[in-house]
Amino acid sequence: MDVHNKTIAQLSQGLKAGDFSSAELTKHYLDRINTSELNAFITVTDELAMEQARAADDKIIKGNAGILTGIPYAHKDIFCTNGVKTSAGSKMLDNFISPYDATVSHKLNQADLVMLGKANMDEFAMGSSNENSYYGDVKNPWNVSKIPGGSSGGSAAAVAGRLAPFATGTDTGGSIRQPASLCGITGLKPTYGRVSRYGMIAYASSLDQAGPMTQTAEDAALVLNVMAGFDEKDSTSANRDVEDYTENLNDSIKGLTIGLPKEFFSEGLDDEVANQVMAAVKEFESMGAIVKEISLPNSAYAIPTYYIVAPCECSSNLSRLDGVRYGYRCDDPKNLDDLYLRSRSEGFGEEVKRRIMIGAYALSAGYYDAYYLKAQKVRHLISDDFKKAFKQVDVIMGPVSPTTAFDLGSVKDPVSMYLADIYTLSANLAGLPGMSIPAGFSQNLPVGLQLIGDYWSESKLLNIAHQFQQQTDWHTQTPGDKS
Amino acid sequence: MSLTEKQVSQIAYLARLSLSNEALKSNTKDLNSILSLAEQLAEIDTNDITPMAHPLHMTQRLREDKVTEQDQSESFQAIAPKIGKKHYLVPTVIE
After folding, report:
1. ipTM, two decimals
2. Which residues on chain A are in Cβ contact (under 8 Å) with B92?
3. What is the dotted CATH code of the domain comprising A1-483?
4. Where are the domains of chain A?
5. pLDDT tens track for A449-472
6. Domains in chain B, start-ordered, CATH in brackets?
7. How many other CB atoms are found less than 10 A from the CB of residue A292?
8. Residue A200 and residue A204: Cα distance in Å, rounded?
9. N or C: which end of chain B has fewer CB within 10 A?
10. pLDDT by residue (tens digit) across A174-216?
C-alpha cells in the first residue's frame, strides 16, 4: 500500500510503530507536491517541514508524542503563519510575510504537526471554483480539465491528490464543503464560533469558520480535536468546552431521523447527483435511520441574502488593505488618494473588487435599509427555518452542489457562479455545522452528500459520517497518479 | 432600478477603487445583475422580523484593563512598504 493513501489514523500508528519516520513521510509528500501539476500550493515550505518533522521524530523516539505528532498537512493560505508568506491568494498580499501565527496555526504547531506548505485558494476566499487565485487555477485531481471547487480548492485537491494527509479549510458560504464534494473527500464546517478566527484573514466575519478537510470522518474528528476551542483573541469565539470528537464515532445510528428538505431536490439539481445522494440516503435507511421530508421554505433566498451580507462585511474588512502598513503599494503614488486608489485597484482581482463594490453600495446612505438590513431580516427567517426543522429531525441531508465539477473556464458570469452555492449558503447564514462526505460518482467525478446538524452537533455529524464510511468505500477511492 | 456607469464609478471611488473604461462597462453590467438577484428579497414580508447580525446570541466579552500585547512595532514595520522611525510613510498630505 502506498503510504500516501493512508489515513491520519493509520499514519499515526505507523509513526508510533516505527514503520516510517515523520521525516521520511514528510519527504515523500514533499516529493509528490513538487512533481504535482495540480497547482494546489502557493508556497511549499520544504525546509521548515523537514525541521518540524525531525523535531516530531525526536518526540516519537522519546515516547512523548501526541496522537498527531509528525503528521504532515497543507495549510490554507488564509491562515497567518509566522515568518511564512500568507497571501490569501491575492497579489495584494504577495509580499506579506506574517509577523504572527493564527490561533489555528499555533494549535497545529503545538500538536507537533508538520506544515508542508500553504494551499492555493480563491482570492480572499471569494469564489467557488478556485479560478480567482492570483497564483493560477487549481486543477481537480479526478480530471485536470475540471475545477476543484472553491474557495478551499488547493486544500481539497491536495487531500484528494494525496499530496497531504489532510488540509485546513475555511467555509464562509460553502468553501470547505463544496470543494470537498467536488474532489471526493470529507470536509467539516463546524458551528460558527467553534474554531478561532484569530489570524484567519477575514472575508465575512459573521460567516467565516475554519475546519478540517480529510479522507475520513475519523480523521476529521482527530483534526477538529486540535483546531477547536475557545480563544480570548477572537471576540466571537464560543466559550464552550471542546469535546473529544472521536468519542462517539462508533455509536449506533439506529433510529436517527434524517430530514430531506424538499427545496434541496427541486429544479436545477443534476439528475445523476440527485440519484447518488438518494442512494446514500437509502444506505442510511438500511442502517436503521428514518427519513422524513421537511421544508426550509426560505432557503432559495439564501443566495440573495448571502450575496448582500458577505459583500457588505468584505467591503468593510478589506478596507484595511490600503497600501500603507503592509501588502501591495503602487509605484510612485502622486498623493495619498492616488496611493489608496492604485494600490487597491492593482492589488485586488476582479471578483474581489466586484464584492467590495456591492458591499460599498449596499451599505451606503439611502440603500442600507433596502439591502443590508433587509438581508439581515431574511437571514433571521432562514435561521428560523432550521430551528423548526431540528424540532422534527436529528440531521438534514441533501446535495452539496447542484452538479459535479465543471470545466475550468466554463462559467464566466458571476451570478451563474453564485447560483451554484444554493445548498451550502444557508448553513453559514444560520451558523450551523455542515459536512460533505463522498457518496458516489457521476461520470468519474465525485459526488458529495451534505449533512447539516444543529448547533454544536459536530460530534453527532462525525458519528453519522463515520458510520456511513464503515458501510461504504467511496471515501477510499483515489484518482490515482494518472493525472 | 439599475445603476448607471456614472453611479458605478462613484461607488468604486467610495471603495477607493478605480476602474478602466472597459472595467466600468463590465462592472456596471455585473453589479446590476447581482442587484437584480438581491431584489428578490423585496418579495418577502419581513415586518416585525428583527435583523440577524450574527449567528450566536452572545454579548461582547469584557476583559481586565491591563496590557496584554507586547510592542511588536519592529516586526510589524519590517513588512511595511515605507517607514520612518516608528511611523509609516505616505505621500505628503499637508504641504
Report:
1. 0.96
2. 335
3. 3.90.1300.10
4. 1-483
5. 999 999 999 999 999 999 999 999
6. 5-42 (1.10.20)
7. 11
8. 11
9. C
10. 999 999 999 999 999 999 999 999 999 999 999 999 999 999 9
